[in-house]
Amino acid sequence: MVRVSDAMNTFVHESEEDLLELNNALLDLERDPASSEAIETVFRVAHNLKGNFGVMGFSRAGDLAHAMEDLLDRIRDGSLAVTADRMDLIFEGVDHLEVMVGEIAETGETRTDPSATIDAIRRSIDAGESPAVGAATGDEGTDDGDSDGGARSLSSDRSVPYATLAETVDEEIDLEEDANVYRVTIGLGDSASARVDAMFVLDAMSDEHDLIHTVPERDAIEDADADEDGVFDGEFDGYVLVDGEGRDEVEAFYRDNRYVDDCSIEDVTERLASTRSDDDGDGLGGVHRSKEVESIRVDVEQIDQLYNQVEEMVTSRIKLRKIIEGSDLVEAEEELEEHGKITESLQDTVLEIRLVPLQKIVGNFPRVVRDLARRQEKEIDFRMEGVDIEMDRSILNELSDPLMHIIRNAVDHGIEPPAERVEKGKPREGTITLTGDRERDHVSVTVEDDGRGLDLEAIEEKAVEKGIHTQEEINLLDDSEVYDLIFHPGFSTRDEVTEVSGRGVGMDVVNQVVRGVDGSINVESAPDEGTSVTLTLPVSVAIVRVLFVTVEGEMYGVPIKNIDEISAFEDVNDQTVEGQEVVRHDDRVYPLVSLGESLDVPGTTASDDDMVVRIKEDVRQICIRCDDVVGQEEVVIKPFEGILSGAPGISGASVLGEGEVVMILDVETL
Q1: For residue 79, what are the domain limits?
Q2: Cα 629 to the chain's mean position, in Å?
Q3: How far apart are CA 253 and CA 247, in angstroms?
Q4: Is 454 contained in some domain?
Q5: Residue 548 · residue 556 · CB < 8 Å
Q6: How many domains, the chain?
């Protein structure tokens, strides 16, 4: 990655914020086309983006923002109406700009060519402002949602979701290496039999190349009865997959066709390849994927406070050095205590600075839901509440992808198609709500939908089919325990794979990530009432007090908050029930887990001198047997990454003052 200037960093961060605001304002405008506040916000942000791109010298991005601004200006002054086609064009422009800002952040320049989208936007403006359009509709300068004021021409209808188009190409084909995809724009002129001519051209496309998509749809081009909205006017786009031919050869082939009056060619291979790789099996374009929080805004007072604390630490360090040189241990102990207070204060300030609003990672979720809902032909009202709660940046980064997956599940598995909802007596429009809430040092984030709910029988059948449980074991589980089966690796009740989900991966990863940051997850559901998934997580990074225990000379940490009691083995009521060693306490039975055996520590042996750590019942009803207990201390827990991530029984590691690395136990998975 190239090193960019502070001015460029500021430009990138401000552009990202502007694009997020633009996305959400466009959603407001789409929901309420009469909203003057929404259109003013959209126009203002688009104007601001155009100016910033121009100032920084990114002319192609500036030209696209300018075209979007012009279209929005026509909507603002009433010359053009808000239609689905125009909104798709504007959203496509936003997607281009997001990709270009990402390229600027990565390399300091843009590679994306937005000229096709710019042309489509300009043609949409021209089509909507044509006097002939006004004469035809009897209402010059205004559109209604049905007739579209003539704007449903080639220009406005040629927008296509590239994520959807990418899915039509066989995934085994390596775009750019094996084949290219071209967008061929065909003009049939003033032919009296344009539909018949179009049929011959489309047949030639299918015979010579692999025709993967047309805009408008092929039925609307060939069949006048199917073309109820008049979207075909003698021009169309065909997307062809070509192997072994260059752009000039493809263009020559179509220009030589006797039925073609004019044509133009655009190579969209790179864009499709980028969309496919960014999609990564999620069914989402790269611009809608979650991303890490890379910058935070810091209050000036916090900076001053941090500076003062650092000054105090430097002064305290000098004092300690002089005291130690003078060997005055009493004074050294007093100064060390003062040094500890400064350190704690500094720690609190730094943790406070690292807090970032939940909004930072969920701000693009409304757009994600909108695009997924449109692709699945569902009607969804997505709401967010309490997203101003703050969490540590590192925890937010871990939370982003799990939340995205839960949202996708709610759209794909939860919310029913409109016809099915009406048949059930529900509103056509489903509701998904994301709610954030904070209670002391923990936050909860809940995703709730009013869809079909989890199918208990289907989950139970799949669990038996996969060998997770026997039918007899399933019969003993309560509903909440059955719901927890969705967290089993590879579990899915879907027989088919959709573009959004059904691959049998996801919720197990969500569970691992949440537990990896010392959080928990809870699922509640009711048939035809919906599903609620709640993630409970710490506000700040895992700085916790742990109890150190040993096994065969190896030291491990157990979080104090999980411990109910520590006892000598000889003092506990130890028994054996059906071959399992247990501890009885207050009429309850606690399985006794040998820490050494659980972690495969070589040379593990039992002794009457062992210690027993009883875990709190609401965490896990077990007792842990170890060799000894050697004290406690506040430590910073670093979660494992890579192949060690999600290892059962271990939540992470901590480095002690002497440089010794100690593994911290996860008692829930031990």
Answers
A1: 1-159
A2: 42
A3: 10
A4: yes
A5: yes
A6: 5
Cβ 666 vs Cβ 515: under 8 Å: yes
Asked if the structure places residue 445 within a domain, the reply is yes
Number of H helices, E strands in the chain: 23, 22
Q: Which amino acid is at 125?
A: I
Alpha helices in 471-591 (DSSP H): 471-475, 479-483, 507-516
597, amino acid identity: E
Side-chain half-sphere exposure of 121, counting CA atoms within 13 A: 27
DSSP 8-state class, residue 160 = -
| Same domain membership, residue 609 and residue 517 | no
Buried b (16+ CB within 10 A) or exposed e, 567-593: bebeebeeeeeeeeebbebeeeebebb
Q: How many CA atoms lie within 13 A of 643 on its CB side?
A: 0
CA 194 to the chain's CA centroid? 45
Residue type, 409: N
Q: What are 613-666's pLDDT values in tens digits?
A: 898 887 888 899 898 998 888 777 776 666 666 677 887 788 775 667 888 888
Residues in the chain: 670
Q: How far apart are CA 560 and CA 563, in angstroms?
A: 5
Given a contact cutoff of 8 angstroms between Cβ atoms, the answer to whether 138 and 42 are in contact is no
> Do 413 and 488 lie in a common domain?
yes
Q: The domain spanning residue 617 has which CATH number?
A: 2.30.30.40
The verdict on pTM exceeding 0.90 is no
R_g (Cα) of the chain, nearest Å: 31
| Angle, in degrees to the nearest 10, between helices 84-107 and 6-31 | 170
> Does some domain include residue 229?
yes
The residue whose two tokens read 């066989």 is: 170
- Residue 293 located in a structural domain: no
The verdict on 155 and 168 lying in the same domain is no
* Residue of higher predicted confidence among 1 and 560: 560
Q: Is the pLDDT of residue 221 over 60?
A: yes
Give the H/E segment covering residue 8: helix 6-31
Same domain, 234 and 316: no
Tens-place pLDDT, residues 358-414:
888 888 889 889 888 888 889 999 999 998 888 888 788 888 888 888 998 899 889
Report d(CA 460, CA 626) in Å as an integer: 38
Which of 271-285, 289-303, 337-351 bottoms out in mean pLDDT, i.e. has the lowest? 271-285
Closest Cα to residue 632, out of 555, 527, 575? 555
Sheet with 650-655, strands from edge to edge, namely 628-636, 543-551, 554-559, 661-665, 650-655
Helices (H), 592-640: 595-598
What does the buried/exposed string (b/e) look like for 10-44 if buried means 16 or more CB atoms within 10 Å of the residue's CB? ebbeebbebbbbbbbbbbbbbeeeebeebbebbbb
